[in-house]
Amino acid sequence: MKEFHAFRLEQVDQVVNVIIDRPEKINAMNAAFWQEIREIFHWADQERSVRAIVLSGAGAHFSSGIDLSLLSETAGQLGRDVGHNTELLHAKILELQSSFNAVANCRKPVLAAIQGYCLGGAIDLIAACDMRYASADARFALKEIDLGMVADTGSLQRLPKLIGDGVLRELAFTGRHFTGEEALSIGLVNRLYMTADQMMDDVMQIAATIAVKSPRAIRGTKAMINYMQDHRIDDGLDYIATWNAAMLQSNDLRIALAAQMSRQAPDFPD
Amino acid sequence: MKEFHAFRLEQVDQVVNVIIDRPEKINAMNAAFWQEIREIFHWADQERSVRAIVLSGAGAHFSSGIDLSLLSETAGQLGRDVGHNTELLHAKILELQSSFNAVANCRKPVLAAIQGYCLGGAIDLIAACDMRYASADARFALKEIDLGMVADTGSLQRLPKLIGDGVLRELAFTGRHFTGEEALSIGLVNRLYMTADQMMDDVMQIAATIAVKSPRAIRGTKAMINYMQDHRIDDGLDYIATWNAAMLQSNDLRIALAAQMSRQAPDFPD
Amino acid sequence: MKEFHAFRLEQVDQVVNVIIDRPEKINAMNAAFWQEIREIFHWADQERSVRAIVLSGAGAHFSSGIDLSLLSETAGQLGRDVGHNTELLHAKILELQSSFNAVANCRKPVLAAIQGYCLGGAIDLIAACDMRYASADARFALKEIDLGMVADTGSLQRLPKLIGDGVLRELAFTGRHFTGEEALSIGLVNRLYMTADQMMDDVMQIAATIAVKSPRAIRGTKAMINYMQDHRIDDGLDYIATWNAAMLQSNDLRIALAAQMSRQAPDFPD
Amino acid sequence: MKEFHAFRLEQVDQVVNVIIDRPEKINAMNAAFWQEIREIFHWADQERSVRAIVLSGAGAHFSSGIDLSLLSETAGQLGRDVGHNTELLHAKILELQSSFNAVANCRKPVLAAIQGYCLGGAIDLIAACDMRYASADARFALKEIDLGMVADTGSLQRLPKLIGDGVLRELAFTGRHFTGEEALSIGLVNRLYMTADQMMDDVMQIAATIAVKSPRAIRGTKAMINYMQDHRIDDGLDYIATWNAAMLQSNDLRIALAAQMSRQAPDFPD
Amino acid sequence: MKEFHAFRLEQVDQVVNVIIDRPEKINAMNAAFWQEIREIFHWADQERSVRAIVLSGAGAHFSSGIDLSLLSETAGQLGRDVGHNTELLHAKILELQSSFNAVANCRKPVLAAIQGYCLGGAIDLIAACDMRYASADARFALKEIDLGMVADTGSLQRLPKLIGDGVLRELAFTGRHFTGEEALSIGLVNRLYMTADQMMDDVMQIAATIAVKSPRAIRGTKAMINYMQDHRIDDGLDYIATWNAAMLQSNDLRIALAAQMSRQAPDFPD
Amino acid sequence: MKEFHAFRLEQVDQVVNVIIDRPEKINAMNAAFWQEIREIFHWADQERSVRAIVLSGAGAHFSSGIDLSLLSETAGQLGRDVGHNTELLHAKILELQSSFNAVANCRKPVLAAIQGYCLGGAIDLIAACDMRYASADARFALKEIDLGMVADTGSLQRLPKLIGDGVLRELAFTGRHFTGEEALSIGLVNRLYMTADQMMDDVMQIAATIAVKSPRAIRGTKAMINYMQDHRIDDGLDYIATWNAAMLQSNDLRIALAAQMSRQAPDFPD
């Protein structure tokens, strides 16, 4: 596997742990980060040996969000014409968004494991994952408001699917910190663990559970849930009918039924 | 009232209890089930003496989901041409979906009362109901993933309106069992009861409360909430304005006001 | 500041407290109320010295909802032609809706502070606010159903963004009272306080916290969250990219960064 | 084939000509019409020997639209309560609409052949067909406006896909007659013929041409064009990709390629 | 009737002719224009004696579009902060758009009568009307491109409903002039007249024809066609069913039927 | 500039002519074609010296559509499991679609110049262009139906924006050939020329006209028209307001005004 500057990858059977690996910088998202995450998730999307992905941060914290040097670097590219600057910034923002879209659109489940700080852009990132798990020491904040700006890499777009509208507004307007406990109670994370180690053990275990399911059914299920974030119920019913009309002819259903009868674990091909 | 093979109906005043009645098969959904449920809910939709519907299961369990014999029967109808099979399966899936659409589109409130197992297709069914209530022994699972397939009769379309996105994905990807307690905490059910009997008593009571309201206002309220699952806020405001512009000329408002003044229960016509 | 009949305004620094001020009528929403609230929120939207708004009720209760005399007055204007009446009522309902749209579309955050009764139309009102806070004695009810009518000023349109579908239907169909405790557990309010005084203190404090943020970033954040109530994720990402491409050229980002470096509070212009 | 009161059916090979057969009443749409058309198109949708449908009118005219006796009959069912009447009329209108939805949703192409009068409801009907052809003597009018009402069975919904917005408004606001010539120039009909006989010959010929194509590909093409009337381009591309991923595995592609090589007409199974 | 600076109004029976009245400036749209047009169309929307509106230009030309002095005036208000400027311009553009929205949303039909130049903003204006008629000397151009800017007051939003996508792009990218003849052939105008006088006579006649129809049915028809510019067919069918369920109880249907029987002109109340 | 296998590029000033260059194969779309077209349009999108693009075919014909060898090659990759095949074909179709999306999403105008055959996939391609021009000898056909399949690379998605629904269905169901004359009359092409040479001269000239406009305004105009293919009018108005609020601060407006005053051609920077 390729070497990365901002990430380290560890694969256990069919689960790959994608680790943000700049602990000395609280895993701040620098230029390498934004480009490599796109590359990694495109790879994971295509790589047959990968069936589930865990996303975590090296060291005491998940991530402190975007590296401020990136912002000032971009500021340095601005010229005197507002029109020119606007097109340049527009392209830049779309590029950053595409990095997290690669996570959201990856056809395989992505589980975020969060300890310590998870701030600003890190919230945009975990909002693009399928599920989120945290340790008790996790500290979250939508801190873009304290930079005098509107968050623009996905949190305001994806959090409304995850947490209530009222609490989202309070968190986005105030930028206040909130704990793993509160994250659990508002539905941002699925489960809270005493320690980061316990969290990693359990999250890797959940990922392993998912990895032995039919990969085709997992991909289809994720595609369908993603689809429903933006579509009507009648469109969704029509879409799954069209999809399953083909997929129910695959061998996976037969493999599953045979396994149930023989009371053995099914073995689904990639 | 007509006789059914998979159901039994009991009417108390203006509430009808639609009971899945194959306890010896854990109320598995066989061919008769899928056809009769459509018939029953079309009848309930039209029948003026019915103002609220409770949906429950006979015996120790609500339902174990689709009868696997149905799947193998359908498999037996497949031929050698993929195109032909696909059209056949497409029509079949749309037909199954229409059974639960009949529940969702019934103009009268449907309250699901759930004890014991509520698995696979049974989740699709309760997701099409208006409200869900469970006893402490309820056990749920989106078990389609363990059949190597994507759920296709409504759970992935309707659950996103009921429970958080993150927990939905975990349940759909892992297919793990979850308790009534968890169902309550994630918002899948409105209330949890110690025993199935207590549940039935209270659910019938809630249905009776609804049944004495203005039937027209109840139908309108359900229509509006259904509408908002798929439409913009401005469209919804426009729609209710058009609706109420006519309906506020009905007698129901007058009956309600007169009843409040005389401190007597209002008596709304069917 | 202008005098109002149904309201009283108190401004503390950049926070204005909009107080429904008919305590002897349990703050029932009369003709003056519906017109003045529109006027007040248009003013607050434009007034540069206002950066956050608290909406509260004078006396022991937030509001008992629409003043029934308004309904009978409208009934008195109806004639013999159904078509004529329908157009008249349609225009009337759109007018009432526009009063609460003025709250929802006000570009500045609106925090509702709720004690005592919050019934019928009052629920429609708080659903149009950004956040909701309540004291322990708060009592809520979607009581329109007991008037034999469908709620038509926004609760059925906006509550689905705030609370779960199942519990919404139960509350809308039964019209039953529910406590602040339940309002908190279903996500209708963000926080519960022992007393109304404690609530007011804290809500004014939260509003003050918001008022010192960049007004431009606050407006943008509210616009974006409002936008996501009705739009697809890809549209939302595109929209914020277009917005921020211009706004990131403003001084607010520089002010924020300078303040962080100097460890002083930033001072954002209106 | 069953006997009908308002229709006569003639089948030539795989084309069925559905003839409105009340020439003495200018083919006015009476109660039998509205119910039988639904029945006929459901049958044609399912019947394998039918691959294309021509819809025409017996005698000198296509149809004068809804039978006014139907309107007065419905008026006779109205009672004293506006709410009750509104629900009754709402159900009635939805029922009429479902008759023309059966035409629009029939999975097989429907070609309208129009001579003489095509007025009011008859425009709603031809708007639900796939293609329209007329003889030189055809006379059209959206005459609902002269009944003091808004057209409600589909013309205002479907004509915007067929003709320009500006001309549609003129025709709908004035209710003026327009000729086959104008119908051709605004795109309402595909082709104009000197006589009704020439029209029938050619339309039957076009239908016969369609009937020898792959029925599966024809159904898919119609489904896709219908889909695009209501959906985004990106959704449409995704949908056809899902559909064709299955259908390209069918034998039809092989049959077509073999026929092209052997320069013989392909023979597609039903 | 009030005096206006940029307009003159002439009422003939129930038709009002709204005349842009700055012929010495080729009817360029100055500050007074943008504010008064909003005022006039709000008045016409509410005024019962007005049933149809003709929009025309005094002198030899319809209008040369926005007055360039308005642009430079706005430019003069810009300051040094891009964020501040952006908010100011955003508000300004929305305000200009609202002037033409007042035309599009006016519940009564608006007929544009166009002679001579119809350039830039004048195209945005006629695109907001219901129908367009031109004399042979009319000259059109989407000339915003030659100002180095994107048209922002409605032409790019509304023209796609009126003319084909391919020709729209050519006209918008090149900004070239096109004649009344071409405007007719691409569907932008409904009819072409030899002279402006003939045009005015006929357009006033068409407006008069519309003015004797049922005002309620006209308003409903316009509302429905407007609705279909943005909504699905199924939503449109549902909406008209809800609307007509009330409106068919009005007297207009009876008045129309009685008039047809007595072969007299119906007399619909305002 | 890079060498291509299926294409040849010629640049004249700021216009690039992208020529499909396999005349001996009637410019059939082979594997190289599908990959290179994506590459070329990504390049043209980014390359500052390119401001308008002409797309044409070398030799006597524009293109005969997809190379059938591509279809058989794909067929050769299919295995025994329908599920596996379906996923493989799904990915393949999305890949082909992305080639034409690169044309549609290229931020610069694309003008198709069509002579001779333009069949099957070639129609999907020209539908993704901004404008289409043809010579008198052009011959079109949606011939996918004669391959027993539904067109899946964009024609059914994009043609409804270009030509009427009724004629589209006839062409798609029959697969019949149609001439340049008919293409002009139904609005598929903007203009018809006697010879291919005259066409190329004029199309290059139109492209040159576009190339001297403000590139930023051209890009914005294309973005806006693309946006309106999928969005509501109110969303479009909001979007252009947000866009122009920034862009009106650019120098292009000033350059344009100065040029108009000095009666010289403006010189817009890239």
From TrEMBL, chains A, B, C, D, E, F:
CDD domains hit by this protein: crotonase-like (cd06558)
Molecular function terms, GO-annotated: isomerase activity
InterPro entries assigned: ClpP/crotonase-like_dom_sf (IPR029045), Ech1-like (IPR045002), Enoyl-CoA_hydra/iso (IPR001753), Enoyl-CoA_hydra_C (IPR014748)
Gene3D superfamilies: 2-enoyl-CoA Hydratase, Chain A, domain 1, Lyase 2-enoyl-coa Hydratase, Chain A, domain 2
Biochemical pathway: Lipid metabolism; fatty acid beta-oxidation
Subcellular location: Peroxisome
UniProt keyword annotations, A-Z: Acetylation, Fatty acid metabolism, Isomerase, Lipid metabolism, Peroxisome
GO biological process, one term: fatty acid beta-oxidation
SUPFAM superfamilies reported for this sequence: ClpP/crotonase
GO cellular component terms listed in the entry, alphabetical order: cytoplasm
Family: Belongs to the enoyl-CoA hydratase/isomerase family.
Stated name of the protein: Enoyl-CoA hydratase
Native source organism of the sequence: Pseudomonas duriflava
